[in-house]
Specification:
The chain has 11 helices and no strands. The protein is mainly α. The model has no long low-confidence stretch (mean pLDDT 85).
Length: 241
């Protein structure tokens, strides 16, 4: 699959600016990805992934016998780490990771702390009797560290994304319609990133004026056209007719 992907991949000149400019930028993006949910602290990746590294090294050194299902867990973890490397390489230079990790990547990154949690349980189970108290203490500290990051990230999402949308669910449509009518980027000035359709407003203009999209955009963005059956059904279900 990797060979086929490499054979058929296409170089897009506009994407070159998204690649890291140096190793520091690459490892900063990679660290943020592997440190999820502590996305603001790349160094946290070392602590969060220590159980996984420990199990892998012990396995390679012959000091650890694979537990049931371990190959599957390590495969998932390796896949997620490989995806993190790909994220950092393809997007690490576009300042996309400066404010954290975009939510669309988290579906893959969440596998890393899950795999580490599994490794913590295995290491506790295999620890010698005299070392178990210390191992339990370390495992508890690691779990609290993970929990604090998850709670902090969840609170940030609630405060910055969920609650604002609950207070004003029509804001994204209202701003997009205002931009469509005025073609003035000042419409989005000072607005949260969640309410801006795309960082590149040129791409937004292209979609709004693309003839292929006429008839496919939401009714609010093409009020002069009759609504299609799916839009009518959606509005009926929402009680807006």
């Amino acid at each position: 699959m990797i060979g086929l992907a490499w054979t058929f991949h296409v170089s897009v000149p506009a994407h070159a600016a998204l690649h890291p400019e140096n190793t520091g930028q690459f490892f900063n993006a990679l660290g943020r990805a592997l440190a999820w949910p502590h996305v603001g602290q790349p160094v946290a990746a070392v602590v969060l992934n220590l159980p996984l590294v420990w199990v892998v090294l012990a396995r390679l050194g012959g000091r650890h016998r694979a537990a049931e299902g371990e190959d599957f867990i390590l495969l998932l973890a390796g896949w997620a780490v490989a995806l993190s490397v790909a994220m950092a390489w393809t997007r690490g230079g576009g300042h996309e990771f400066d404010a954290g990790v975009p939510s669309r990547y988290v579906d893959f990154l969440v596998l890393v702390p899950l795999a580490n949690s599994w490794c913590v349980v295995v290491l506790l189970r295999e620890a010698a009797v005299r070392r178990r108290p210390a191992m339990r203490l370390l495992a508890a500290a690691w779990g609290v560290f993970l929990l604090v990051g998850w709670l902090g990230l969840s609170a940030e999402v609630m405060r910055g994304l969920v609650l604002p949308r609950m207070r004003d669910r029509e804001a994204p449509v209202r701003l997009a319609v205002a931009f469509q009518r005025s073609d003035d980027a000042a419409v989005f000035a000072g607005q949260p990133l969640l309410l801006i359709p795309h960082p590149n407003l040129g791409a937004v203009r292209a979609v709004l004026h693309d003839p292929v999209m006429q008839g496919a955009l939401p009714p609010s963005l093409q009020p002069g056209r009759p609504m299609g059956p799916l839009s009518r059904m959606a509005r009926w279900l929402l009680g807006r007719q």
